[in-house]
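LOG
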Amino acid sequence: MQIIAQHGDIFIILACLFGFFMAWGVGANDVANAMGTSVGSKAITIKQAIIIAVIFEFLGAWLAGGEVTATIRGGMLDPALLEANPQLLVYGMLSALLAAGIWLMIASARGWPVSTTHSIVGAIVGFGAVGLGVEAVAWSRVGTIASSWVISPLLAGTIGFVLFKSVQYLIFENQDPFAAAKRYVPGYVFLVGFIVSMVTLTKGLTHVGLDLSFGQSFLLSILIGIVIMGVGVVMQRRIKYVQSASDHFGYANVERVFGVLMIFTACAMAFAHGSNDVANAVGPLAAVISVVRSDGVIDSAALVPWWVLVLGGGGIVVGLVTYGHKVIATVGTGITELTPSRGFAATLAAATTVVLASGTGLPISTTHTLVGAILGVGLARGMAALNLRVIGTIVMSWLITLPAGAGLAIVFFFMFKGMFG
């Protein structure tokens, strides 16, 4: 208690710096994943991707980021074992943020799309097991989160596979693919608007003073979906059929229609990602602030101050702008060749999975989800469409992430313990 009272301001300043650094890593690595499909399918440029991400990542983090934050902060460690020494939680959370931030910086420099959720969970488990004892870690909680790392790519891959098959059946196998695209794409646009609105309204907006019932949320989501569909229809009408000797079936024109849709799915993915993954950076930061302000009382359900979500959103944006291009290249072009229609199926599948997880408070990995969705879309075209060497490298980087985060966190934990006593 005395240590917290004595160094409280220093702890909060360090937590803000490390939290921003971790959020920077999320932006450099994870947001690049979210935008990779849109850039890889040439639906939008890198510059446009950054503008979309800046706006919607920030909104997702600020408006809908509160739900997952409580899971990552309160569920991993047993608060009862920390009550006698609350300063250990402070050292641990500072170590976790710094360790995860450094690992994400290394991975981003190499263009590896690793999981920020893996990084922070590995770091928290590492310092908890070594600094507090193996019994301090809620292993059942870790097991639940670990199972979501398997379930989320499978779920996203399945949704991506089904979505792309529906696109093939309804549009590409139609006698007039261009007319079919104009007929069915507004429905897909509605789906994007409805799914993201529904999960955001049912789970995410209580901390900004908007508390709606399920029925109200459902009706409002339908309304938002219809408005977004209307915008899509207006944008779609501007696309005129272009005759080309090399394009007998008019598929290039269909892809241009899907290019419009990719703008909506890019916005949805950025919002979904901001709402789910800001917790990785602000969860430990909010835990430190909570312990310091309450003079050492550990409360797993403390509210996240609004400015903490803003700090996390700001860090994510800076990370993407400064360092995101390398991972965008790996995800957008490395795994399988993407066109706007394939990119759409992958991104909507991933966004749906992420917002469902965000709604249930389960911290899944956006990276695993998106890569799973891209694999699902690739498989819909056959095994030959996948670049297995790149997939192997990605899986290797995933396996290294947990021990790397844990190892670095243990080193920093003992460093902070030595510095502050």
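LOG (cont.) second protein
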Amino acid sequence: MPATSTTTSKTVRRGIAAAAALPLLIGALASCGYGSQAEKTDAKTSASPAADTKKLSASEVRIGYFPNLTHATALVGIQEGLIAKELGATTIKPQTFNAGPSEIEALNGGSLDIGFIGPSPSINGYVKSKSTNLRIISGSASGGVKLVVNPATIKTLDDLKGKKIATPQKGNTQDVAFLNWIADKGWKVDPESGKGDVSVVRTDNKVTPDAFKQGSIDGAWVPEPTASKLVSEGASVLLDETDLWPDKKFVITNVIVSQKFLKEHPDVVEAVLRGTVKTNEWINANPDRAKTSANAALKTLSGKELEPAVIDPAWKSILVTDDPLATTLKTESDWAVKAKLIEQPDLTGIYDLTLLNKVLKATGKPEVTDAGLGTK
């Protein structure tokens, strides 16, 4: 695999207090894929502080994200008003989604301006629009994906052969990574059906814990907090995907923007990026307050909290980062091609990091790279 770009944030190392309703949160994590769609819900409008009356070129900006831990930058940045502060008189209109494809649809349809989203739907959205709709303008999170198994039946990685292992969705980010790992082992699996030397069972994350308890699956290659939920119910971590990557970093969440909005309102996009950069910095500098903020945001969206036994290990495994880790996105795309889930895409121009690097430079942080996939 190629080496990753330098990150500008630190790993969130400490646990978080109880955070949000597991059923909705896990459901939100289920779909970062190339295929299915899910419903969206509108979040409450977040007005900018009245005291700050900076006038930007748009009166509002519509920002989409998932109510889950890998979207911590959006959760905390909106909850704490850190993004709104940079926008001045421009109002944030947040929207939450349960799947990457539905967020891409909103962006394509003109009802969303900026979104937090995983690499697979970013790639798919870019390719399907023939490079005309979105740009990746920043990173947001890395890591937070684990292979967890029934320790009674699986003790080593070789024991996976012949077992049933869940992934969230055909062609989603975790599914692609697992199929690639299987191929590297020399085992054969049909990517469409999931049948082969290992049975890849595509299962919505919200039902994966029940499937595990009932014995219909032997383990799962899943994002947090699903992985930690399974561990709390008797599973054990057999592999952390982070350990498979150079520098232990790989993209799990990007920030994307509509090309139309970027062209018409670059000042608004730059203000949002100032807010995300400051949010990531704030999360690392104030871990206790950050976990309280994430808890409040998720509870508002879902009505319940995750237990400490789930949220603590889940939060520790996620890295918030401004760096989009572009080389790892290219690798993930190559894996999807290798698995014959997509044709070889031309990703040239998928990144536009101009405004992000302007913000980073202004704050004394190192600039980041687009790995040759930026706009010309």
